[in-house]
Amino acid sequence: MIINGEYRRTIWVKDGDSRLIQTFDQRLFPHEVKIIDVKTSEEAGIAIKDMIVRGAPLIGAMAAYGIYLAAVEFSGDDIITYLNERKDFLNETRPTAINLSWALNEQFNAIQGITSKSAIIEALLNGANKIVEDDVETCRMIGQHGLQIIEEIAADKPGEVVNILTHCNAGWLACIDWGTATSPIYQAHQKGIKVHVWVDETRPRSQGANLTSFELNEQGVPHTLITDNTGGHLMQHNLVDMVIVGTDRTTRSGDVANKIGTYLKALAANDNHVPFYVALPSSTIDWEIRDGVKEIPIEMRSADEVKYVFGKGKNGVESVLICPLTTPAANYGFDVTPARLVTGLITEKGVCAASEEGLISQFPEQKR
Ligand code: MRU
Description:
Blueprint lengths: L1 E2 L2 E2 L3 E3 L7 E4 L10 E4 L2 H9 L6 H18 L5 H13 L7 H12 L6 H40 L5 E5 L15 H9 L4 E6 L6 H13 L3 E4 L4 H6 L5 E4 L3 E3 L4 E4 L2 H10 L4 E4 L5 E2 L5 H4 L8 H4 E6 L2 E6 L12 E4 L6 E4 L2 E3 L3 H7 L6
Parallel strand pairs: 6-7, 6-9, 7-8, 9-12, 10-13, 12-17
Antiparallel strand pairs: 1-2, 3-4, 4-5, 10-11, 11-16, 14-15, 17-18
């Protein structure tokens, strides 16, 4: 997608230096566009842990390059033991997004049976590049399928704007290109359908305010930033035609973990008969679990993210304390929306019910 009028992706191998991975420092958007160099597996892990990169598919891509960089930096006899250590390190950086372990497993599958260091390096670079290219196509396809839903809503209100509410950032900045939740929106916009996006601010890290607003603005998609508590009111007044969010992990029965506050949007949508869709690549499905509330690990993050707000003041970008210094704060990163509140899942294969039957109809190879 576009930043400052230029086509960009969120992660790439530097031209002419295959040992250097580059990405944007997403902590600085929208105030600054800064490119970060990632040269070691340690730096890849830090980029994920410190949220220089974030969003389930991009976390997976960075992990894939991280394990490639581990092979590049290794000097010794037992490269497989070293890669396994770095895999554990990378896997522990963020607990909720399943794409992280999925991408690392893909990479280990790609080097099965290979013994020479140079061949392992080559296979891991190709593997990471493939994860990136596949994600672009997957997100494009999610957009194609989600577009049909927007077209149906637009057909029911000719000439009027389709209002879509989203939470957190499940845009191209969370992926490589297109995004998941935003891909149908971008494709509808490109097709000339009048869309308008209600952007949840998404405290405490403000991914909606900082990232979704930024990327919609850059693509010229009409949008309005709202506080996290506004969605229910808008739905009661028929100002939301549909909700589309992303997910960090979806169970085989269709329960959906996403940024904290998503569940409350789903409850409000259900009460107001507003369709609530979740857009996801199949790499986000955890086929091993069914009960999202009981089985998905929820990341606990620093209390300071709640107690301080980060933004641009008179002296530039700064953090501001918003409560007594000694007030304790709890920072649950994600919540789980039960499948019963989800109207449909939009994957690269199409739109299906949020249920085991729905997902198996798209991915029959996962049937047990
Ligand atoms: O904590 P973050 O910013 O990594 O959380 C991101 C989200 O919750 C996204 O909505 C989710 O990863 C889907 S990304 C396409």
